Protein 1
Amino acid sequence: MKRSRVSLLWIILFFLCMGVGFLHGYLPQGISRDYLIRPTKVRILTTDELLIPKELRSLLEDELHVKLEVTLTRDWNTLLAKTVATPSEDLVLLPSYWAETLRQQNLLSSLGSKDSELFQRLAPDFVDTSKKDFDFLPIYWIKTGFLTADNKSFESFLKDKNEKVLFLIADEDLILKHFDVWQDQGLSSYVSQKKILTLPLEEILKTDRNGAMEVPSNELHPELQVENQLSALLIWGAVIPTNSDKKDLALEILNVLTTPALQEKVLIQTPFNSALSQVSDKALPLQRRAPYVRDLRLKDTLLINKKDIDAKLKLKNDFGLSL
C-alpha cells in the first residue's frame, strides 16, 4: 500500500514537471517570468508623448513582459533631476540637443560600439562614425516649415495686419532660434503684433489653421516655406542615464523599438521621419525614410547644437514672450 502511494506521488510529480516544462517552453518569456515573477517596472522619461504613445507602450509591455512607467516633461530641471538621481530614469526619449547637454555633464551610458546591431541600424547621416561607441540613439527626424494662407511668403504674412495668429512648435530652444533670426532680419516688430500660440507636435497637427503654422515638411505639405532660415532640422532619440540600474533591459527595449517592422507601423501614424537605414517598406513614403535627408537643401536651415537652459528666460526678457 505504501509502495503504491509512493508510485502515485512519483507519477503526479512527473506529469507536473512535464506540464511546467511545456509551459516554460511554450510561453514567450517562460513560465517563471510570466507567472511566478511580476513584470519588472521600467521608468521612461520623454519630452514628447508622440515619441512613445500608449499603443506603443502596450506593445512593448506585451513583447518584453515589463511594466512601463512613463513620465512626460518639457521642464529641463525636472529631467536633469530624474537623470542624476540614484537610481535614475532607466530610459529617456528626447531631442538630440538635450542629449548633447547631458553628455557634456557625463550623465549618459554607452549604448554599444560601432559593431553592435543597434548601431548598424542607424543611417550614417545621423551618427558620428569617428567615435568608438555612441550614447545617443537617433530614431526620428523632421524638417520644419511654415504654412501660410494662400501660400504667401512668411514676411508677407507678418506684415499683413489681418493675420493675427502664429502657431509655433512647443520647443523653447527652437522658438528662441526663430526670434533671434527674426530680430536679425528686422522682423521683430511685426512678430510682436501676432498672437503666439505654442503647441506640441501631436496637437499642432490636429489644429485648424487660422494664420501661419509651423509644421513638419513631408508628403502631406509639399508647399511649405522651408528656406530663408524659416526651417529647422530636428532629431529625436534615446539615451540611457549613467545611473540607471536597468541598463540591459533598457537596451532590450531599444532593440525592440527600433526593429524595422515596428518602426514602419509607428511612422505611418506620426509626423516623424526615420533615422534608421533598415526602415524601407514600400508602404512608407520616400520622404519618411532616412536617405531622404540627403535630398533636402539644408542651407540656412536652423540647427540646434545643445540645450539652452536659459531659453525661456531669454524669450521673456528679450522678446516679451512667456511660455
Note: DSSP finds 13 helices and eleven strands in the chain.
Protein 2
Amino acid sequence: MTTFLVSPTEFRRYTPDAFDATAGAMSILFHRHSLCVEGPPSPGDAWLGDLTIGTRVSAMGLESTRSFRAREVPGPVLVCGDGTTVGLWSSLIRWLGDRARVCGVVEVPAHDVPLVQALLPGVEVVAQTEQPGEAVLSWLDDAPPENVTHAYLSGHGQTIQPARNVVRSRYDLHRSIIYTQPYWATGKVGL
C-alpha cells in the first residue's frame, strides 16, 4: 500500500496497481466509494475529485501490514471483498501469475460488474445490494466447497467477521491462514 496526504491533516492508503521505481511512477485503480454511499464525499474521494490528468502527487512509501502480505503458497487462493478491493485483487492476481489460481467473490455496483469481471479473472463478480456485504455473504453461503490453501478478506469491516466464519467452516481453513484487512466500515469515517 501507499499513503497520500488527502487534506492538510488526513492521510489515505491505496494499493498500487503497477509500480515503476526507475520512472518514479505508479498507477492505482481507485474505487469512488462516496459515489455509492449517501452523504458528503469521504476525504479520499474529495481529494480524488480535485485531481486532474497529469497532476503530480507525492506517495509516502510502499508497505503492507505484516498480517496482510501476499503469500506464494501452491493451490487456490480465496478472495472476498467489494469495490474497494478490486485494485488489491487485480494486483494479487497479476503478482501470483501462474503460481496460484485466485477464486472468490467481489461485490460491486451493478453497472460495474462487466468491467470488474474483465479485471478479475477467476473471481465471481456479483452486483451489490443496498446492504453492504449482503451479496458476498449470500455467495459464500451458496458457493460449492472448494479446496483452497488460504484466504484474503478485505473491504467492508462489518462483513469481514461473518465472512471469515463462513470461510472457516466451508473451506475448512484454520483462522491463521485467513487474512483480513478492513478498508471501511458503515458509520465510520477514516477507517
Note: Helices lie at 43-50, 86-96, 113-119, 134-142, 157-170.
Protein 3
Amino acid sequence: MGIVVTVFMALILFLSVPNPVGKRLKKYQDKIFVITFLMGAWNALWYDAQHFDEFWGIAALIAGFSMMITSLPNISLDKSPSLIKHTLGWLQTKINSLPQGFQELMLLMLFGCACIYGYTLIKLNLA
C-alpha cells in the first residue's frame, strides 16, 4: 500500500504546481483528487490509529492529512449525493478560508512525506 500512496502523493504534487506532467494528467484529475482524498483518509484515520506509537503511524497521520487537505478543494461535488455534497462542501469552504500560504505549507509537507516514503521504498526494494 505504501507504493500506491507514494504514487498518489506524487500525482497530487504534479497536479498542484505548473509542470508538463501536470498538463498530461488534467483529464484524469477529478479521479486522482478523489482517490487521493480517500487514500489520505485511510492513511490518517485507519493506519495511524493502528500504529500511532510508531514512526510510520505519525508519518501516515501527517501524509494523510496533507493528502486530504491538498486534494479536497479540487474535488468537484456537482454529481455527488446531497449528504456528501453538504459535508465535503462544508469542509472545502473551511479549507479555502485558511490563511494565505497554508496550502503551500501542506504541499511542502506532502513533498517531504513523498520523499521519505519514496526513499524508504527504494531502500527496501534494493536491499
Note: The mean pLDDT is 91.
